[in-house]
Amino acid sequence: MSTKKELELEGELLLKEPGQYKVILLNDDYTSMDFVVEVLMSIFHKNYQEAEQIMLDIHRQDRGLCGVYTYEVAETKVMQVSRLAREHGYPLKATMEEA
Ligand code: TYC
């Protein structure tokens, strides 16, 4: 059982600290490696070396962390990935999960 004080503190924390969400990029057999590097640089603000490393990790391990953001920012990045991929004819997908 939580005391009134504990519930109040919990409520304050929930108000003050928005949840953090991981944006994960998924591997597939069709998206080009160069395009994934471009996505990581343009949407997730990685430099070329970081982007290439993350892309290779995803290629080998099937998924990879692109960044941790608030819910709305994470949701926007997931949508930007699917839009850019669709525009270029690639099936690349990103998902988000609670950090
Ligand atoms: N597996 C892809 C290929 O061999 C490259 C790739 C890497 C695709 C990362 C998606 O999130 C991805 N062309």
Automatic annotation (TrEMBL):
Function: Involved in the modulation of the specificity of the ClpAP-mediated ATP-dependent protein degradation.
Coiled coil (residue ranges): none
Gene3D superfamilies: 3.30.1390.10
Upper lineage: Bacteria, Pseudomonadati, Campylobacterota, Epsilonproteobacteria, Campylobacterales
GO BP annotation list: proteolysis
SUPFAM superfamilies membership: ClpS-like
Domain Adaptor protein ClpS core per the UniProt entry, residue ranges: 16-95
Record-level Gene Ontology MF annotations: peptidase activity
Pfam family, one: ClpS
UniProt keyword annotations, A-Z: Hydrolase, Protease
Record's protein name: ATP-dependent Clp protease adapter protein ClpS
NCBIfam families: PRK00033.1-5
UniProt subunit comment: Binds to the N-terminal domain of the chaperone ClpA.
The keyword Hydrolase is annotated on this UniProt entry: yes
